[in-house]
């Protein structure tokens, strides 16, 4: 018979902290009691409390602001989280992640075309306007804007779990995506593909939005495959 793993004091304290947040109806951005107050409340030492707080911070459940206090984190209600301990991925893992995006994101673009309207579309337009301002070598800013476009498109599909999956995939291989941008070395083409996806979404053309997103992501995956098979010397 396998040995039963007993929960540690830190495990129990982590659960009690989550219960405190939920029972109190606290929302992201709400402030929690100080470490001293929490230590007294739960009758634990400060080092034990800090271990539990670090666990919660790693998953985005809380945010510890130096000199300010402890706050409920933006990710407290997430269903899907990126692995905070993810090491650098090998080539096959990266291709699998990109393959997952090819499967997931095109249908989300179609869903966005069917339901997005008004201010949501205007916000997506602003994202690409921002990208246009960074096409001449400002790759760090352009990368962030490109990822914002993909995250926003997934969010407009209206399924929070699928949006979190896309967000997690983009977060997990952010460094590789930045490298892809530099390797692809055709920022204008990348931007125009995003613009074509947006035009289909604005037009409410679900089929075109899906196909254009699929073609765009296949382009990205092809670049990565070429990089793996013919690495730069």
UniProtKB/TrEMBL annotation:
Keywords for the protein's UniProt record, in alphabetical order: DNA-binding, Transcription, Transcription regulation
Q: Which molecular function term from Gene Ontology is one that the record holds?
A: DNA-binding transcription factor activity
**Pfam families from the xrefs?**
FCD, GntR
> How is this protein named in the record?
FadR family transcriptional regulator
Q: Which PROSITE patterns match?
A: HTH_GNTR (PS50949)
Do you know which InterPro entries this protein is assigned to?
A: GntR_C (IPR011711), TF_FadR/GntR_C (IPR008920), Tscrpt_reg_HTH_GntR (IPR000524), WH-like_DNA-bd_sf (IPR036388), WH_DNA-bd_sf (IPR036390)
Q: What is the lineage of its organism?
A: Bacteria, Bacillati, Actinomycetota, Actinomycetes, Streptosporangiales
- Please name the PANTHER family in this protein's record: TRANSCRIPTIONAL REGULATOR, GNTR FAMILY, UXU OPERON TRANSCRIPTIONAL REGULATOR
Which ranges carry the HTH gntR-type domain? 7-75
């Amino acid at each position: 018979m396998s040995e039963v793993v007993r929960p540690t004091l830190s495990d129990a304290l982590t659960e009690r902290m989550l219960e405190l947040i939920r029972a109190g109806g606290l929302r992201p951005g709400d402030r929690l009691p100080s470490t001293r107050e929490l230590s007294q409340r739960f009758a634990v030492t400060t080092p034990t409390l800090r271990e539990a707080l670090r666990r919660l911070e790693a998953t985005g459940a809380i945010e510890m602001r130096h000199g300010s206090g402890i706050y409920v984190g933006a990710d407290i209600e997430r269903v899907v989280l990126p692995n905070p301990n993810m090491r650098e991925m090998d080539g096959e893992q990266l291709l699998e992640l990109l393959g997952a995006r090819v499967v997931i994101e095109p249908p989300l673009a179609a869903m966005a075309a069917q339901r997005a309207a008004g201010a949501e579309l205007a916000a997506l337009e602003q994202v690409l306007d921002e990208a246009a301002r960074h096409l001449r070598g400002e790759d760090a800013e352009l990368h962030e804007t490109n990822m914002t476009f993909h995250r926003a498109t997934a969010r407009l599909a209206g399924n929070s779990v699928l949006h979190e999956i896309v967000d997690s995939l983009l977060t997990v291989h952010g460094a590789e995506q930045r490298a892809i941008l530099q390797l692809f070395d055709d920022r204008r083409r990348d931007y125009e593909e995003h613009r074509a996806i947006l035009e289909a979404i604005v037009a409410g053309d679900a089929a075109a939005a899906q196909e254009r997103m699929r073609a765009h992501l296949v382009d990205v995956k092809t670049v990565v495959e070429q990089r793996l098979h013919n690495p730069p010397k």
